[in-house]
Amino acid sequence: xxxxxxxxxxxxxxxxxxxxxxxxxxxxxxxxxxxxxxxxxxxxxxxxxxxxxxxxxxxxxxxxxxxxxxxxxxxxxxxxxxxxxxxxxxxxxxxxxxxxxxxxxxxxxxxxxxxxxxxxxxxxxxxxxxxxxxxxxxxxxxxxxxxxxxxxxxxxxxxxxxxxxxxxxxxxxxxxxxxxxxxxxxxxxxxxxx
Length: 194
Fold this sequence. Notes:
Elements: H1 2-15, E1 38-39, H2 44-50, E2 57-58, E3 67-73, H3 78-96, E4 104-111, H4 115-125, E5 131-134, H5 138-142, E6 150-156, E7 162-169, H6 175-186
Parallel strand pairs: 3-4, 4-5
Antiparallel strand pairs: 1-2, 3-6, 6-7
Helix pairs in contact: 3-6
């Protein structure tokens, strides 16, 4: 019962419909994402997808791609639930395009969600990309306590630093438009070239 009440309170904060006096701000474009680490997934396909085999924990810069798209979600967020099929389609579109498949990787972070809650979301919506728990809200706090869903695009630099090139609250019209929006923000033409 305590866990349910805590989740309900968190859900009200994460995707409340009332206007807040000061809206939480996400990562600033042009700056680095605050540092955090994630536990390497048990699923070998996800480890291979991310390029983190042989590690126990990793950071965004360890992911083997030029860009990482991060979805901050909550299993209790009705907007995240509604958006899940579109995110799955977005993932499929990127992986079907040879010019983008190895350039863009996608992960989700469940704000306030335990490992079990993230698994429920993954199974219910058949999410094909790696999802990670943030049960204590530690990552969520570092990125500005944003509402859900929230999307962050990070571009890795050659010196192993990274820069936020996309930061947006809320859903998107279609996976195709979202992909075009991300590519435009990253300065990449449709064929995958700058």
